[in-house]
Write a structure and sequence with these properties.
By secondary structure, this protein is α/β, with parallel strands linked by helices. The protein has ten helices and twelve strands. The longest helix has 18 residues.
């Protein structure tokens, strides 16, 4: 994989299960949102996380930031086990991990003006004068393409793209080294997608930040992500170098996702793979491979034994019995 010094954040067998309300006390049920996920994110890279809605991407990101306590497993950030830290140590470490939320409007307090919204992390941290906070906020506003004149305006006065810029400014005000981008452009018009993506790229290069980029847009993931992982029902199906996965897509689920990407090459049209059946419930997932009930290549072993994530080629791992060597 990579030298430990190059890994800024990693998960080890991370699982997040939520109890189902109303279940009988002697037979508790759980929503298995994330199950046994182990990933390494290298310093300075953009790591893509893709999959259908409800597959556990955002839950995984929240557990990564300590916003949700995992049921099992570890989150290691810069060599520290995040969930074993004291409250004081966690607070100090957490300043280096921030998040850009999916909805740029609901993530901003409508009663706060822009100075209060962006400057709030500095207020919470303490040790800054009002003048220092205002100076820092103005600096970041100009960095993300806004101006001093916007200081005392409110979120409702801005467009969706401008609100997302405000959210980005708030996320980077404490100079984090790791930033989770939870579908940062999905709620925006197509016309402003490129502007926000270019801004994120510019900030990453200037500040040497590491991104976890969650998205449904596989074309965007291909263009900006160095590595990626494909999730299905809380499990990683395929992961590795983005270019390697695009050049040699192996898992049937990944192949189905990629076949749905809009292709402008009219001379070599990609065959559309339409998956049959419904996504199983995360409360009662299949005993074997979680994708087996929808997989066009399913074998008897797929419903009996869960495939392990194995390395097929350098920087390319897959969890599928088609490549595990086990057929029965």
């Amino acid at each position: 994989m990579t030298d430990d010094k190059n890994i800024i954040v990693s998960t080890q067998n991370l699982s997040v299960h939520f109890p189902v309300r109303g279940s009988l006390p002697f037979k508790k049920k759980y929503v298995k949102a994330v199950s046994n996920v182990s990933l390494n994110i290298r310093r300075g890279e953009t790591y893509g996380l893709v999959g259908e809605s409800g597959c556990g991407k955002s839950t995984f990101a929240n557990a990564l930031l300590g916003m949700i306590k995992p049921t099992e497993g570890k989150v290691i950030f810069e060599g520290k086990d995040l969930n074993s830290l004291s409250k004081k140590e966690f607070k100090q470490t957490r300043r280096n991990m921030q998040m850009i939320f999916q909805d740029p409007y609901s993530s901003l307090n409508p009663r706060f003006d822009i100075l209060q919204i962006i400057g709030e992390p500095m207020v919470i941290r303490g040790g800054y004068t009002d003048e220092e906070i205002e100076e820092r906020v103005v600096e970041l506003l100009e960095l993300v393409g806004l101006s001093r004149e916007d200081l005392h305006r409110y979120p409702s006065d801005f467009s969706g793209g401008q609100r997302q810029r405000i959210g980005i400014a708030r996320a980077i005000i404490l100079n984090p080294s790791f930033l989770v981008c939870d579908e940062p452009v999905s709620a925006l018009d197509v016309s402003v997608h490129a502007q926000i993506l270019n801004l994120l790229d510019k900030l990453q290069k200037q500040r040497n930040m590491t991104y976890l980029f969650i998205s449904h847009n596989l074309a965007v993931v291909k263009s900006i992500c160095d590595h990626m992982a494909v999730m299905y029902l809380g499990k990683v199906m395929e992961c590795g170098s983005t270019q390697t996965i695009y050049d040699n897509t192996l898992h049937p689920y990944t192949q189905a996702l990629f076949s749905a990407v809009l292709d402008i090459d009219v001379d070599n049209k990609r065959e559309r793979i339409v998956l049959q059946g419904d996504i199983p419930s995360p409360i009662d997932p299949p005993a074997g491979c979680r994708f087996c009930k929808r997989c066009p290549h399913a074998m008897p072993i797929c419903s009996q034994k869960e495939p392990e994530l194995i390395e097929i080629e350098p920087d390319h791992m897959i969890a599928c019995h088609l490549y595990s060597g086990e057929k029965e």
